[in-house]
Records
---
Amino acid sequence: MSEHRPSLAVVGATGAIGGVMLRILSQHADVWGEVRLVASPRSAGRKLTVRGEESEVLALTEDVFDGVDVALFLVPDEVSAHWAPIAAAKGVVVIDDSAAFRLDDDVPLVVPEINAHAARLRPRGIVASPNCTTLSLIVAVGALHAEFGLRELIVSSYQAVSGAGRDGVAALREQLALVAGTELGTQPGDVRRALGDDAAAADSPFAAPIALNVVPWAGTDAGDGWSSEEIAIREECRKVLGMPDLKTTATCVYVPVVATHSMSVHARFENEVAVAKAHEILATAPGVVLFDSPASGDFPTPSDVVGTDPTWVGRVRRSMDDPHVLEMFLCGDNLRKGAALNVAQIAESVAAEFPR
């Protein structure tokens, strides 16, 4: 008798994260039966390649979930909010990459390296994957927490423009083309004046020029001066680690990098810390690469980390003022572990639940 393997739908297959997901499905051990590619009606009929075979993209409708066991949702919040419950009502296990369900008490928020067990309890039939910034951070911090007991996190993020979608990448490339070869960046406001309307175009997700600049605002207004991205890091870290009272604060900044988020992390622990022990933990933690010899020029940077799966950690040092604090710098590709890879890992754990 042939082995039964669960069927899979990839919703949002034609998007940037969808493209990464198709590559991951083609690279990982093949645990799936049929793989159904789904997107908006305007993308229906396109042909994409997954697992070495060309497949036609289907329009997102209720019927597209008939016969599907697991569905990966790689779509905007509003699309997931509408369609994920429809798929779940048909008995499909939904793994959602959007923010629509991350803080829902009846939806587990899962990082397989940290809390894989949580994916098994899903009252709504939905499992959520955290924000890309949280994911780049949590695998390293979670490993250290297991040894030292985390008590406080202060994070500054340096986020790639792809975190704002294709419009973010387009805005950066267009603005770089306009400033390349100039002497801009030496006088107040000269970059903004040179870019003119391009710096605040309707399709630019940034409120200020991103070329030759950094923009200290990611997400939407969450009130009291905080952005939605900053609140997401706080609440998602608390939920994944099971620490609802964890002191956490973040400042999120866009930088002129296409892909891979970076973070400066100040982590305070219950127990005293030692760099040698932290190195040992990080060097053996799943999903983490320790790259930490700054005197030799060895530390993670976005341009070196992009396209890789792990979170890379360097500049690990104990605070000079508090023996309970570790300072570190880390980088993680926001389209791989920060999005598609984590969803794929959750889905693979769910696939293992199906009878063979």
---
Amino acid sequence: MSNKCVNFYLISGNFLGVVIKICEKLYVLGENALLLFDNDDDLKEADSKLWTYSKSSFLPHGSKFSISIDDANYCNVWLSTSIEFLNNPKYLIHNGLSNISSTAKNFEKLIDIFNANQENLAKERSSFYKTLGFNSEKIWKFDNKEWELCENFSN
């Protein structure tokens, strides 16, 4: 049985900046992810950023707005406003959304990105994830231009 885990990322800046870096690492590792959004406008903005990420790298991704759903299995990252398994994702990436359901239990890894003012909600999601069988949790904080592993949420 695999070790289902959650990685929380406490950020002070731009959600998409962190997501792009995470997606790039997953692409290098050959892992697929679902990038979940609350609404189509945020999804479309992320879609445009992933296409223009840099001149030297390209992150294979898609959404119902950019490619045929039949071609989703060719995408490293699938962008959606609902939990879908069109590209056989191992990872679910989101920023503390309200549309996380018990279907999340079908992922091996969750990446939950939040700002400091959302920490109490992240703690609530942590409890919810444990009910879904996610028995391992790491909390990362961006501090002094580096990621630091925290023991737990601040009190």
